[in-house]
């Protein structure tokens, strides 16, 4: 049975990495103490080793041990045999590019579909959608495709940001950008605010974290859904 | 002699489209009343016709007439014979995709190099750099390449935004993103604040508009340059 936590962000304002999710992660990774970490998104361009160390520190609090996928000679086999997977945030273009380059995208999808518990934050959540077209990241590298895992039948916009009142900046709001996406694409988009996550358990798809989310559907006005909403209607 | 205005934005806060630039544009397009408009970036997904109409309205104030490139049977020939070119803002991915699809990128470069006065705003400025890797836009379509005109020997980040004080949002600042770009790429980046433009006249390259700009170079700390700075050092 598929089991995923697809979180908007790794860190909420004022917290330490993953802190707000730790209780949830204890349950999510209940069956294993060993989690395979995919550091490919390299936030701020840090190395795979440094990124893995920082994640190790966060997971130590709930007595889980972390190994980076880059430490293994045969990453595809390692993925298949893992008991829990975490794909961290950073830059979605860098992450997707590396997943294609290392041919990890399809094996990752198969691992998730086989029931290995998955945690994604930010870029690691974005790739659970149909495509990465609704990332907020800067396109600092050119990946071979924008197609991603398609674990959920819609696109994800992590770190969803409401318009800033009285802003004098003329750049587009997040809502404008996602509406623009829907003039070229038809799949729905969920704007996940920081602190929210999508929980996938088999065929159940739920919004969690205590916040509303914003839904964008082709030909409709964007609207809010409540915390704990069932997301199965979205396809 | 090359002649370009590469502007951060079409509109500054509280102004109407191009208003802050009109006096400058009178001089820039002094030799012609006919400007060819490239509406491919389609801000908010509006049609080429609607976009062209709105630009027509702005240019009417300085008695210039506007035709959209999409109105012509032979756009490449039209480009070559134009007396002035404006590429407007919107989504850079959409713009670059369309420039590749219509095979307009190379002819546009040749037209600019032949001395036809060019105005770019936002996405239309971004494409004057080496690549579009430092756009702020959402990747709502997948262009065949991120390579752009390379009229200037660096990359441009239009709508450059300083970090918002006391923000509780955990998404990256613009500075973080551009620094991240420089972990994968070596060309310099200029962060152009709204209200600034780069003026190109032959081999002269100058910052104008009354504001400082922020420069990002590989292996250096980002730093500010003054209004009217010569940009020829940047390569």
Automatic annotation (TrEMBL), chains A, B:
Keyword annotations of the record: Dipeptidase, Hydrolase, Protease, Serine protease
Keyword check for Kinase: no
GO molecular function, one term: dipeptidase activity
UniProt superkingdom: Bacteria
Keyword Secreted appears in the UniProt entry: no
Family: Belongs to the peptidase S51 family.
UniProt cross-references to NCBIfam families, sorted A to Z: PRK05282.1 (NF003642)
Protein's recorded name: Dipeptidase PepE
């Amino acid at each position: 049975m598929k089991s995923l936590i697809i979180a908007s962000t790794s860190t909420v304002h004022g917290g330490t990495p993953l802190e707000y999710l730790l209780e949830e992660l204890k349950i999510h990774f209940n069956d294993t103490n060993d989690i395979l970490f995919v550091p490919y998104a390299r936030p701020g361009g840090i190395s795979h080793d440094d990124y893995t160390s920082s994640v190790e520190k966060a997971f130590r609090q709930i007595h889980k041990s972390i190994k980076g996928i880059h430490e293994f000679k045969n990453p595809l086999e390692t993925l298949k045999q893992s008991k829990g997977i975490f794909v961290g945030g950073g830059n979605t273009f860098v992450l997707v590019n590396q997943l294609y380059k290392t041919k990890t995208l399809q094996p990752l999808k198969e691992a998730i579909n086989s029931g290995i518990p998955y945690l994604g934050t930010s870029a690691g959540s974005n790739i659970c959608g149909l495509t990465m077209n609704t990332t907020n990241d800067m396109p600092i590298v050119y990946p071979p495709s924008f197609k991603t895992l398609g674990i959920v039948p819609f696109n994800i916009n992590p770190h969803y940001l409401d318009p800033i009142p009285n802003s004098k900046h003329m750049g587009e709001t997040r809502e404008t950008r996602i509406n623009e996406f829907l003039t070229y694409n038809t799949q729905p988009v969920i704007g996940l605010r920081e602190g929210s996550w999508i929980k996938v358990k088999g065929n159940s798809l739920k919004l969690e974290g205590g916040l509303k989310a914003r839904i964008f559907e082709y030909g409709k006005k964007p609207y809010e859904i409540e915390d704990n909403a069932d997301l199965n209607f979205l396809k």
